[in-house]
Amino acid sequence: MSTATLTFDLSDSHDRVEFNRITKARDMAMLLWEIEMNGYRKFTKYNDRQEGAYQEGIEEVFEYFRALLSHHEIDIEQLI
Questions:
Q1: By the number of CB atoms within 10 A of the CB, which of 45, 56, 61, 71 ranks highest?
Q2: Buried-exposed string 45-80: b where 16+ CB fall within 10 A, e elsewhere
């Protein structure tokens, strides 16, 4: 089994920021998954406002969000 060890100097402000980024990465991945999966459903399938302009706006927002994920090569399924 391969292992990796990361070392941070938590008294250094830059290292502390990097430490926080790494330790919160799973939480960020879960947030992205929640937005992608449940957020889309909440605003489309389970919403009374299904009229054209509203629906088109929701579709456009989520298309943009998915394009950003793709541009940054983030595959949420690989992260959770």
A1: 61
A2: eeeeeeeeeeeeebeeebeeeeeeeeeeeeebeeee
Tell me the pTM: 0.71
Where in the chain are the domains? 26-79
Contact assessment for residue 44 and residue 58, using Cβ atoms and an 8 Å cutoff: yes
Distance CA 42, CA 49 (A): 11
Query: pLDDT, tens digit, for every residue of 25-63?
Result: 999 999 999 999 888 888 887 767 767 788 888 899 999
Environment class of 19 (CB within 10 Å of its CB; exposed 0-12, middle 13-18, buried 19+): middle
- Calpha distance 37→76 (Å, rounded): 10
